Amino acid sequence: MKKWALIATCLIFCIIILLVFAGLWNLGPLIKKAVNTYGPGITGTQVHVESVRTSLFTGEARLTNFTLGNPAGFKSPHALKVASLYCALNEESLAGNTIVINKIELIHPEINYEKVNRTDNFKQLLKNIKGSAGNQASSSDQEVKAEGSRRLIIKNVIIRDAELTIAISSLVSQSLSARLGDIHLKDIGEKEGGLPPSEAFNIILSALYGGITSSALTNILSNELKATGTTLEELGRSSTRDLKDASNSLKKLLGK
Q1: Residue 201, pLDDT score
Q2: Could you tell me which residues are beta bridge partners of residue 177?
Q3: Are the C-beta atoms of residues 188 and 200 closer than 8 Å to each other?
Q4: d(CA 212, CA 215)
C-alpha cells in the first residue's frame, strides 16, 4: 500500500514539474503576444517586440527590438526604441492574478521627444494611457477583460544610458541630442498589492517624461543651442504663430 502511494506521489510530482516546464517553455511567445496585442490598447500607438528569448530555470526574458510608436500627428519614427530589454520574472507568480516582475532594464534606449504646437508626443502618450483603462473596462471582448484583470508588481525599473533626440521642427532646423540621466524606480504596485498594466506603465512613462523635461537637461540643451550660434532670445523670435505665446525659455518650450 505504501509502495503504491509513493508511486502515485512521484507521478503527481512529475506531472506538476512537466506542467511548470511547459508553461515556462511557452513564456516567450506569451510575452510577445501580450506586448504586441495588448500594448497598443494601452498606449493608443504601435507597440511591438520582434522576439522574446526566455530562460527555463531563472524566469529571465530578453526582448529584442522593442518599439513604442508615436501618437498620430507626430513625425518622429518612434517615441522609444531599444535593441534589448531585460526582464526578470517571479515564476511562482505567473499562475496567479498578480504577476511579480523583479526587474525591467532598458540599456541605451533611443528616445525621440517631439514638440508640436502646445503639446508633445510623451504628453499625448500619457493621455492615451490614462484613457485606456476606461476603454478596456467597457470592452465586451472577454480576452481583453481577462488580460485587464491581471495586476503587476514591479520591483525595479532601470533606464540607463538613454540617448535623447529632441525635435522642435517649427522652431529650429535641426534636432538636438543629449544623454538622459539614469532612472531607477522601485516597488511599483507594492503598496496596492498590484496595479493594472496601464497604471504601472503610466508610472514608468511619467518618470521618463520627468527626466526628459528636467532642468538639468534643459541647461545642457541650452548650451548646445549656443554652440550652434543660436540664443534662446533668437529662438523665441523665430517662433511660429501657433507658439507665439510660448516663453523664450527652453524650459517652457519643453513643456516645463
Answers
A1: 94
A2: 165
A3: yes
A4: 9
